[in-house]
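Changelog note: in this version the structure field was regenerated for every chain. One regenerated record is shown below for reference.
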Amino acid sequence: MIAVYRSCDSTTCKCVTPNHARWFALAACAVLLLTGCATLRNRNPIDEEVIIARQLVQQGIDAQTEDDWVVAEERFRSAIKYSPKDHTARVHYAECLWRRGAADDATLELARAIDLSGGTDVDSIARLGQMLKQTGNSASAAKLAQRGLNVDPTNPYAWKLHAELLHESNKLDESLAAYHRALAYAPDDADVRTATAQIYLEANRANRTVAVLERLFRDQGPTAATTEQLHLHGLALAKLQRHDDAIASFQLARQSTDAPSSELYADLAQSQIAVNRLTDAWRSIDDGIRIANSADRGRLEELQRIVVAAQRRDRSRR
């Protein structure tokens, strides 16, 4: 007897024999196989390499966060092997190379990253300019600053680079204006705020230097001030003849680092001499001479002579 399967709806009633059922089953299998093949084709080796590269980039960033630059460099280098067009991997790899002292390789790698972005990564354009400036190629750095500002006139890093180059050329007013443009787009940038304080001091506006730095100290918190900021603060106070306050700031600067500069010791000694703290000044000079280069040594030896002369005057008055 032939088995008959009925497939009915409200309007039709169809009879399906076993042969029909077998045909439908084969057709369903064929569709499933074709769909499966398409899925396998979509998971091609290129996609898998991109995924691996992204995982390596994240591992590299994690290593950077933990200050493990050797591991970070290896991860970014591996990521680039898997995905040569990975822009993020090249940006971070360039920073690792720069930190290691491989300046030429770092600038080349960052230039490749900028090309991969289609020239739109203004942060990297500005960073490349910074690198070139630090290697003595200020002309190329200036071109990059202008290129970055042409792409994005609101980018604070491009304005910062532009300001630094103007400052380097002793164009203080123009530099200050450029730094203020940078602050308009990144008002919390401590480096830029410190740079403006430095320019105010060079422009004989020490009151403004003190105001900028003390506002920065309040914003950062009492323990966040850097050696550079504290030293600059002391210089401005000394220029205002506030030598006791200057000494306090210089001493904080000295305590904030394991490697105080001989220049810091000289500035401290100069303020100590100004308020007749001659024994303290001699000690500061002595500490400075131990680490001084030839340029700073001359200044410290001159301060020694001033202390000796002042001590003689004090003895003669007794």
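Spot check on this record: The longest helix spans residues 18-42. Residues 46-118 form a domain with the Serine Threonine Protein Phosphatase 5, Tetratricopeptide repeat fold (CATH 1.25.40.10).
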